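Sanity check

After download, print the first record. It should look like this:
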Amino acid sequence: MGQIKEVKYYTDEEKRAIIEEYLTSGESAKSIQKKYGLYGHSKIRDWMNKFGMRVKVTIRETRIASNTRDRIYFAPVEMSKDTELEKRVKQLEQELENERLRVMLLDKIIEIAERDLKISIRKKSGAKQSKK
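Expected C-alpha cells:
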C-alpha cells in the first residue's frame, strides 16, 4: 500500500505568509511546498492568483556549491483594485471586531465597579444634567 498524504488546510493569513516566504527566501516553490506539505503542481502560484497577485517571471542565475543553474522567480507586480478593496474591508472588519470586544470589556469593568464600589457610573436615562 502507498503512503497516505496528510492534507493540511491553511488560513488565508497562513497562505500569505507562505507566499511571502517563497518570494523572499530564494527557495524554489517546490521546496517551500514540500516544507509545508503542499501537494499539487503549482499550489503557491494558485494562491497568488487567488489573492490577485499578478506575477512577473524573471530568470536569475544562482550558484549552489560549484553548480550554476537558472531558476525562475515569480515576483508580484501589483494587486488588483478589487483585491486591495477586499483587503481593506477585511482590515476594517477586524478593527470593528476589536472595538466591539473593547466595548464589551469596558462595560464589564463598569459593571464590576458599580457592583463592588456601590456607586453609579453610567448616566441614567432622563437624568438632569448638573449646571456649572
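If your output differs, re-run the checksum step. Summary of this record's structure: The helical segments are 12-25, 29-35, 43-50, 81-117.
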